[in-house]
Amino acid sequence: MVQSYRAGGAFRKRGAVSRLSDLIWPPRSLLSEEIVDRPGVIEPALWGELKFLGAPICACCGFPLPDYAGAADLCAACGADKPAYDTARAALVYDDHARRLVLDLKRGGRRDGLPVFARWMAAAAGEAAIRADFIAPAPMHWTRLAVRSFNQAAWLAQALARTAGKPWKPGALTRIKRRKSQAGLSASERQRNVGGAIKASAAFKGKVVLVVDDVFTTGATLEACARALRKAGAAEVHAVTLARVVRPTDILI
Ligand SMILES: [Zn+2]
Question: What is the pTM of this model?
């Protein structure tokens, strides 16, 4: 509950600040210093440069595939070792533009892009967003939350829940162990770092759950969320992120 209160509180407080600043300064593009006609938009020149993730992708983890071989097509990693989630989807390829959007949200607390991010994520999640009983953010440990004062995954989940018309469950997935920062860790180190660190509430029993995070990097966080949800008896676990790393060299955050 600490998490939901803090996430909601920060949301309202920053919302008021942002509305005030909108009255004083003209809105800026989400991707540049360009002045735009309303908050939360991107000028046409840069809009065309955003890379949206679409078919062909792995039916499970959403990784881009070279060719489309069928709706049940899996990437090599999922073929060898199926993740605990049913599907994971992302709106954007994690490149320099997506990185700016994510860091402005995560480190700068910039919220004017949330409605458009929510629409992109709803489109990426597709069926999972329609069928979900609950939308839940990937959790942040309370000590980290105390330092940062907000969880960007909770903001994204709340915005997506509004767009999709679904209930959201902040605080129902909790991080019971503070993990080291993921930055600079390899895929297997990330897996060990988050393993067993997340707990899911019994409210998810028999439910279809859509977990939201900002970036799918190696999938370790979403895998830990999915395992916790399976243990709590969730019927289906899906995940959606704003962006997805598709090249290992982009694992920098
Ligand atoms: Zn896959």
Answer: 0.83
